[in-house]
Design brief:
- This protein is α/β, with parallel strands linked by helices and 250 residues long.
- Helices cover 30% and strands 19% of the residues.
- It contains nine helices and eleven strands.
- A six-stranded mixed sheet has the order 4-3-2-1-10-11.
- Helix 1 runs parallel beside helix 2, helix 2 packs parallel to helix 5 and helix 3 crosses helix 5.
- The chain is globular.
- About 7% of the residues have low confidence.
């Protein structure tokens, strides 16, 4: 049974080890589950060592109950032939290989996460409702896909299917992007059953809610005000500004 009744969503880290540690520890102090939105690497300002520490720290946080989603920059190092994107290099690939392999072996490193009590779907990027098939492997119903009620084999097949992980037209690719690539412009409407989504991937000045597609966009750590987002036990969202989680600011 889930021991957390609160959840803290932490945007794309891009190797920022300091932010990773402070936001995670702040979340745990609030008795909240830290959920990292992916893109742990490929910073233009952080060293390879700092980015490696970031990956290793996230792995260690799994033991405390944290979750980390697959981001497009993470997929570059997991499968560079299929998902190579900006910032990737073979030198970093070799440097991060063992750390990413360790992440992949853990069930807390996941393509998406679903909070059933509040009907909240969390992915690195946007999830377009047009990507939900009427039937998938073994006739899995779309609601079961969103609720993550599938076997390990089906999960692997689902998340490696091109429709769910490909690059969208607003990310330099073709067609609609998948859960690690979709931009807001590619959404064809809100998700079914009044699902609220939380997504990173698209830089924001601050965490903000788009009522048109029922989505919180929270990628504000690298280029914005470094705010994060919290969901409480009553289903209420709150933007947490940096001065609340950053001990240096207190």
């Amino acid at each position: 049974m889930e021991r957390f009744k609160r959840w803290v969503f932490i945007g794309d880290l891009h190797g920022n080890f300091e932010v990773a540690t402070k936001t995670a520890y702040w979340a745990l102090e609030q008795k909240a589950k830290p959920i990292f939105m992916g893109d742990l690497t490929d910073s233009f300002s952080k060293t390879k060592k700092a980015q490696l520490y970031c990956i290793q720290f996230i792995r260690n946080m799994f033991d405390a109950g944290a979750i980390c989603l697959w981001g497009n920059h993470d997929l570059s190092y997991i499968n560079p032939g299929a998902f190579c994107c900006s910032g990737y290099s073979k030198a970093k690939d070799a440097y991060f290989k063992e750390a990413y392999s360790d992440l992949l072996r853990h069930e807390s490193f996941t393509p998406f996460y679903y909070i059933a009590d509040h009907n909240v779907l969390i992915t690195h990027a946007g999830f377009d409702p047009s990507l939900i098939p009427e039937h998938y492997l073994e006739d899995i119903h779309p609601s079961e896909i969103l609720a993550k009620a599938f076997t390990e084999d089906n999960a692997i097949a689902l998340t490696t299917h091109t429709k769910f992980t490909n690059v969208g037209r607003y990310s330099g690719g073709y067609g609609v992007g998948g859960i690690t690539w979709a931009r807001p412009q590619e959404r064809t409407g809100p998700l079914p059953q009044d699902i609220i989504q939380v997504a990173g991937h698209t830089p924001q000045k601050t965490c903000n809610f788009n009522s048109n597609d029922n989505t919180w966009y929270i990628d504000s750590l690298e280029y914005g005000d470094r705010s994060i987002l919290m969901l409480d036990e009553h289903g209420n969202f709150e933007v947490i500004e940096e001065q609340r989680w950053n001990l240096k600011e207190q």
